[in-house]
């Protein structure tokens, strides 16, 4: 158990008093030689059972798997149209909500699984109005929803250039998605960037320079905001990979390359 570290974010631990209602063994590791073989030999949590345990806490349980952490199930759930991951212990008395990080290589196991859970159809995202980093004809197309005043987008931007330099078969299409409640001036700046169709103007915004008012009227930014909300994208930056996986947040170039090539993307730096 020392191989993993939990970083709790929301409801840390919820205790359920299920005594008398759970016919399965309560012990997670001991008794009857359970620790000597595969967990599946004496532990099982079906979707319908998980639904009863989590009743009232989530809208729907989609899938249950054995977690990479001994003694835990990973449970894919939906709530208000969004997918989440929680953990239930083998006794079925505890729920854990948060990130699991493998200490040996600092891989965020939870983030890795969430990226694989959340998918959209890239074909419905128009890229004709996007800013471009790399060769537009490159075969590996990644769409990035970014906010011109988002500090994490600013950090990600140079990493995208490193990725393209390392692999010319990758191209990034940048869609401007201003989060006005967080960055009140980002909508005006995004409109100005769209009018100029200028990645230099985006980089000037990231550098903290004053951006002139937009010189045109365009519905591009409004359309992007509406589409992002429809796709369930609520934060920036968020990358949409060629296979539709959603990868939110900053990550360094080496992890982006590994993610695009199908490996894990949960490294904590």
Descriptive account of the structure:
The C terminus is likely disordered. The chain is 26% helix and 26% strand. Strands 1, 2, 3, 4, 5 and 6 form a six-stranded antiparallel beta sheet that branches. A five-stranded mixed beta sheet has the order 7-9-8-10-11. The chain is of the alpha+beta class and 269 residues long. Strand 3 and strand 4 form a beta hairpin. The protein has two domains: 114 residues, no CATH class; 139 residues, Glutaredoxin (3-Layer(aba) Sandwich). The protein is elongated, with a radius of gyration of 22 Å.
Quick gist of this model?
Helix content is 26%, strand content 26%. It is of the alpha+beta class.
Keywords:
269 residues, alpha+beta, Glutaredoxin, 2 domains, 5-stranded mixed sheet, 7 helices, 26% strand, elongated
CATH T-level topology of the largest domain: Glutaredoxin
| Average of the residue pLDDT scores | 84
CATH superfamily of the largest domain: Glutaredoxin
Shape: elongated
Measured as a percent range, the helix fraction is 25-40%
Give me the secondary-structure topology.
Layout lengths: L3 E12 L31 H7 L6 E7 L5 E8 L2 E8 L4 E9 L4 E2 H9 L13 E3 L6 E7 L4 H16 L3 E7 L9 H11 L2 H8 L13 H12 L6 E3 L5 E3 L4 H8 L9
Parallel strand pairs: 8-9
Antiparallel strand pairs: 1-5, 2-3, 3-4, 4-5, 5-6, 7-9, 8-10, 10-11
